[in-house]
Amino acid sequence: MKYCAFLRGVNVKGTNMKMADVCKVFEKAGMKNVSSILASGNIVFSSDKNVADLKKILEAAMSEHFSYDAFLFIRSGAEIENFWNGNPFEKNEDFHSYTFIGNEGVEAILMKEFELSSKAENEKGEIINDIFYWQVPKGNTLDSSFGKILGKKSMKDQFTSRNINTFEKILKKMNS
């Protein structure tokens, strides 16, 4: 089965790695047809193992090879299509739209945090099919009250986020 692993905290705050090296770690861990999408840690691969086993195997391999606490989230092609197709926000050049990949139930935690945060004009958060989507005016992502929450150490093993356009690129790669 084809999967995509979404790595948390790659190439930010001193955790730097080349995607070619990450792909080699995945191959050494027994994954097939490994390739990367962008430098943010999106690894497409094939495996016959179940997701829970893959998560354990790949987090251990990444942690050992790169000497850091690796956190990753694995999704199937069908799940990635749900992320892409569920986006509630219309494309708008003035906004970034993000989707959150994480542990079961994290969308409710994110929505609570979003509701408690101060918001920029037209900043929005929605849950569609148990997936949290966030739209924020360009230039406000890191300055946003909610954006600051995303970097909390207490949340690092709970989720990661990607720009919605990343899912289109991943789907193209998985379907090629």
Which terms would index this structure?
single chain, 176 residues, alpha+beta, 4-stranded antiparallel sheet
Q: Can you put this structure into words, describing what you see?
A:
The chain is of the alpha+beta class and 176 residues long. It is 35% helix and 27% strand. The chain has helices at 19-28, 51-66, 77-85, 106-116, 145-149, 164-174; strands spanning 2-7, 32-37, 42-46, 72-76, 95-102, 124-128, 131-137, 159-163. The strands form 2 sheets. The chain has a 4-stranded antiparallel sheet with strand order 2-3-1-4, sandwiched between helices. Strands 6-7-5-8 form a 4-stranded antiparallel sheet. A hairpin with a 2-residue loop joins β6 (124-128) and β7 (131-137). α3 packs antiparallel against α6. The chain is globular. The model has no long low-confidence stretch (mean pLDDT 92).
Overview in brief:
This protein has 176 residues and is of the alpha+beta class.
- Helicity, in percent? 25-40%
The dominant shape is globular
Strand content: 25-35%
Q: Give the neighbour order of strands across the main sheet.
A: 2-3-1-4
Arithmetic mean pLDDT: 92
Distance between the first and last residues' Cα: 14 Å
Strands, count: 8
Compute the CA-based radius of gyration. Answer: 16 Å
